[in-house]
Amino acid sequence: MAPLSLGIDLGGTKLLILAETPAGQRTWKFPTGPGFTPDDFNAHLATVLAELAPAEVSYGIAVPGLVAADGTIGPCDVLPLCNGWRPTAAAVLNDGQAALTAYAANAAPDSTLAIVGSGTAIAAAIQVAGRRIPATELGYIPYGPQGTLDDAASGVALLARLELTAAELSERLSRHDPAAVAAVRAAGDAFGAGLATLINLFRPERIGLYGGTLSYRGYLTAALSTVDRRALPALRSACRVELAPQPELIVARGALLAGRSA
């Protein structure tokens, strides 16, 4: 029996486990949040492995925040109880780096690419002329007088400002509620400013986008409008900004590829 490969996307709101089995691709989702612990992770992984009963398994795990060379999870605001945890995985990497691994898989080896996610926080990873830049924190760039891009553009910050759940926000947007529409447009504008910053600094040929915040009506439209307005025209015209293939799975797919090649 061939070893089973898993790709694991451990995020601030959900744990997504992707398996490539002889019968095809399968996924599992479990809720996370600030109180999520390594023990919770191990329990959910055990549930999946009990269902699959593999003879041998290897997995890569992608996490928000920085990761030390030995695989120890560093500062991680959205999963504070996982700080200092060292998972026993074939590969442990930043979630943006995992997404870039999947996004760049079919690109030219010397290409310049970026991948940017907007979900619980803003994630990004960059490849310049085929060379990966170490994990960065785009969400921490200053935005506004005292805030950061995370504060202005992330899904969690948006919901907190409106004091709504994701479902409530989507419902209000469907009714064209003025306050909801304006808040989403402002968040999208901030996200677009972050994308324009990447274009102006690194001149990527492509930027792939992923993350749940992109699903809010008006967010992506506002972001792309801001990119067009704030990126240097010559650099903007040379950069394609697009939704990444299977954006909901791109982090897990990158983790799977990283674990398989470790």
Using brief descriptors, characterize the structure shown:
single chain; 262 residues; alpha/beta; Nucleotidyltransferase, domain 5; 2 domains; five-stranded mixed sheet; 9 helices; 22% strand
Concise account of the structure shown:
By secondary structure, the protein is α/β, with parallel strands linked by helices.
Tally of separate helices: 9
Order of helices and strands, N to C? EEEHEEHEEEHHHHEHHEH
Distance N to C terminus: 20 Å
What is the total number of structural domains? Answer: 2
Q: Which strand order does the major sheet show? A: 3-2-1-4-5
Task: Report on the architecture of this protein.
The chain is of the alpha/beta class and 262 residues long. It folds into two domains: 4-99 and 249-261, 2-Layer Sandwich (Nucleotidyltransferase, domain 5), CATH 3.30.420.40; 110-243, ATPase, nucleotide binding domain (Nucleotidyltransferase, domain 5). The chain contains nine helices and ten strands. It has helices at 38-52, 95-103, 149-153, 155-162, 166-174, 178-202, 219-230, 233-237, 250-261; strands at residues 4-10, 14-21, 24-31, 57-63, 91-94, 113-118, 122-128, 131-132, 206-210, 240-243. The protein has a five-stranded mixed β-sheet. The chain has a five-stranded mixed β-sheet with strand order 8-7-6-9-10, sandwiched between helices. A hairpin with a 2-residue loop joins β2 (14-21) and β3. The chain is globular and about 55 Å long.
What topology does this entry show?
Elements: E1 4-10, E2 14-21, E3 24-31, H1 38-52, E4 57-63, E5 91-94, H2 95-103, E6 113-118, E7 122-128, E8 131-132, H3 149-153, H4 155-162, H5 166-174, H6 178-202, E9 206-210, H7 219-230, H8 233-237, E10 240-243, H9 250-261
Parallel strand pairs: 1-4, 4-5, 6-9, 9-10
Antiparallel strand pairs: 1-2, 2-3, 6-7, 7-8
